[in-house]
Amino acid sequence: MPPRLLLLLLFTLLGFAVMGYHPGLEDDGIYLAAVKANLNPALFPHSAEFFRLQTQATVFDGAMAFFVTSTHMPVAWAELFWQFVSLLAILWACHSIARQLFPEARAQWAGVAMVAAMFTLPVSGTALFLADQHLHPRNIATALILLAVARLLARKLGHALLLLAAAFFMHPLMAAMGISFCFFLKLAQWDSLRAWVRQRGTRSIAAWGDETAALIPIGWVLEPASPTWLQALNTRTYYYLYQWKWYEWLGALAPLFLFWLLWRLAAKRNERPLARFALAVFIYGVFQQCVAMIVLAPPAWVRLTPLQPMRYLQLVYVCMTLMAGCLLGKYLLKSGVWRWTVYLLVLNGGMLAYQLAAFSGSPHLELPWQRPSNPWLQAFAWIRTHTPANAYFALDPYYLRAPGEDYHGFRALAERDQVADMVKDASVVTQIPELGPAWARQVAAEQDWPHFQLADFERLKSQFGVSWVLVAYPQPTGLSCAWHNQSLAVCPIP
């Protein structure tokens, strides 16, 4: 095995072990449910719209279902396999970028080590990480975008365009950010652009952002927003840029200043590839920041809020993490064994502790061969194997936030329908406004869930056709339950 691939595999394993693995978590509750629905159309006869409509813009679920069908690999193993491949591809791309910006091998590998350790570094104000702890089309798109950046640095424009096209089919929004960055990277390779930036500064870039935002077709934007859509939107405070805290603004603007500084220093040292790359990140960031501030400012443009233009920061943070590691390797770590040891221990130990604290109710690595120890996952596993495929469940609309639940999605892991929840389904409604009325009716019917009695469950059955409930154990009087553990009970509604 080539030494480069061996080292990348080792760093991927280390990064995977540090970040953890949690299938069905957060957005994977949407995408994993869509994959399973493709494989078994009998699933989700009542609530498939809460994931199908959002996944229409990506080929991810169809591609995963095709892979599972073609290889006969179980879904859980296929998800694990592609998660590892995605992380490996991200690190491969980072190393390829670093090789073209830094001649020193120690700088290149220090950058890769930094990204691997920081996979779960939060991106300021956006509810994103550099990479997710589960398979997400964003992980695959990030790898494709970074590979495109590496090919563009190597002056292989055709390769870069193909990779960006693949990223677009996987995750259109993140691919749009990648296309924007690659556009500015290509411009930064022209000497005339660098001279223009020195002459006119960032004000011209900001004006360009104003003009570009003005080109956005605004007919549909000015349509009135429905009350149910606004109710769902208001559950996502991080969508609203002008409600960010000061430290979130700092986390957005400080990286841009650091890349401006890196550009000037690299240019003075005649490190041309590094200077061009830093300039590209800086201009991309300033441009996208201006667009975000313009788009998210007018109340009349609230329909644009779910586009989350501040998610451009995810790519900036990947580049910042890579450059920080490379510079540390070049100027501080050098060839010192003890320095490298401390570097790796501090990075990986700190991030591991953060992840263990964030998911204290679940195993750090939820691998396919393990039996679930989390009470919620035990309940989901029993439901998956002991209830009819067309069973329709009701459960606490805030169950994702319950202590120890750790944001694992019911549909994806129990493989059964559920009445809409207030946490993740609200996010889907922000993207698909027509789901608003149905979502609002269902979550309203579940309010005050902790105090529900038999009559309330019978009302849900009459109103929505719900046939089963997942409730706290011991269950309310009148319910005869088929299964329970120390925390939860699964019960048919009489």
Task: List the domain count as a whole number.
Answer: 2
Given the structure, what is the number of helices? 20
Mean pLDDT: 91
Instruction: Please list the strands of the largest sheet in the order they lie side by side.
Output: 4-3-5-7-6
SSE order, as H and E?
Answer: HHHHHHEEHHHHHHHHHHEHEHHHEEE
Beta-strand content bin: under 5%
**In one word, what is the shape?**
globular
Q: Tally of extended strands?
A: 7
**Multimerization state:** single chain
Q: Give the class from helix and strand content and strand pairing.
A: mainly alpha
**pLDDT under 50 segments (min length 5)?**
208-220
For the structure shown, list the relevant keywords.
two-stranded antiparallel ribbon, 20 helices, mainly alpha, 494 residues, single chain
3D architecture notes:
By secondary structure, the chain is mostly helical. The chain has two domains: 74-334, no CATH class; 375-492, no CATH class. 61% of the residues lie in helices and 4% in strands. It contains 20 helices and seven strands. It has helices at 3-19, 28-39, 49-52, 60-71, 75-101, 105-117, 137-153, 157-170, 172-188, 191-214, 227-233, 246-268, 272-295, 313-333, 337-358, 375-386, 410-414, 424-431, 436-445, 454-464; strands at 122-123, 128-129, 392-395, 417-418, 468-472, 483-484, 488-492. A five-stranded mixed β-sheet has the order 4-3-5-7-6, covered by helices on one side. α17 (410-414) links the parallel β3 (392-395) and β4. α1 crosses α5, α7 (137-153) runs antiparallel to α8 and α8 packs antiparallel against α9 (172-188). The longest helix has 27 residues, at 75-101. It is globular. The termini are far apart. The relative contact order is 0.12. The model is unreliable at 208-220 (pLDDT under 50).
